Every structure is written in structure tokens, then in C-alpha cells.
Amino acid sequence: MKARYLIPLAIFIAMLVFLGVGLKLDPREVPSPLIDKPAPAFRLQTLDTPPRVLSSAEMRGQVWLLNVWASWCSGCREEHPVLVELSQTRAVPIYGLDYKDQPDDARRLLNGLGNPYVASVSDLDGRTGIEFGVYGVPETFVIDKAGIIRHKQTGPITPEIWRDTILPLVKKLNAA
Hints:
Blueprint: H1 2-23, E1 43-45, E2 53-55, E3 64-69, H2 74-89, E4 94-99, H3 103-113, E5 119-123, H4 127-131, E6 139-143, E7 149-154, H5 159-175
Parallel strand pairs: 3-4, 4-5
Antiparallel strand pairs: 1-2, 3-6, 6-7
């Protein structure tokens, strides 16, 4: 008779353990299968001079950040002043990928809040973002001199994330 109650109790306890572990996970920490793999190639029109095309091949030979953003994204607006400040340090070039956004809206945001990007390209259909495995915006990728993705930051970059994670990696990659 007691065994009849032990099985449901054991199942209930196991479910509590799984729930407890799941609640401690950070949903922002979505591992990217592209870490330590070549960044997807792209060739897209720039926002500031639309006939001009920028390709990922042009960044070869330097460590750079690809910041995936959109004018409609509240997290991107939260992160934007940090990116503007970081761009002024010139520690690493920041390129933007304007994800599923209207170019006029994106240009208005950059004109109003400042432009931290060396260049920003327009990904109207989101195809390039999908190739990078973007789950949502903002996301930022650290890409090394050989075009290999070394880090993915999901969510806004904060001064702490910059200081503790991204800047040390950029310095290490530049020294290599």
C-alpha cells in the first residue's frame, strides 16, 4: 500500500528538482552554435548611403563587433548610449546590422541619438540575422581578424558586460 504512494511522490520530487534547476537558468544565455566558426558572409546596402554595399569580407584583418539592432527595439534604445560611448573610445570598430527595420526609421534613430557604427547595413528581410542565429535584438557578436565568431552577447551591452567580458576578449584577440 505504501509503495503505491511512493511512486507519485518520487515523480513529484523529480519534477520539483527540474523546475528548480530551470528557474535558475538565465534565458539570455542562449548558446550560439556559431561560436568558433566563421561568421556568415553578407553583402548588404548601408543605411547612410544606400547604393553603397558593405560586405563582411571588408572587415577581415581586424577584430570587430557586429551589433544587431532595430529602431523598434526597446532593448536597443537602452543599449544605444553605451554603444555611442564605446565607439568614442575606438577600442574596437562597431558595425550595425539593422534587423527587419524600415531604413528611414533606422536613420531617424541614428540621427537623433547618435551613430556609434562605422557603418550599419540594412537587413530588411532578416535573412542575414537568421544566418547569424539571431533570436532577438539586440545581439552583439565579437568577430576576430580571421572572421571567426568568438563571442555572442544576447541582450543589451551594459558598461559591466563591456568592461568584464567584451573588452578583455577584444584586447586578447587584438594581441593574437
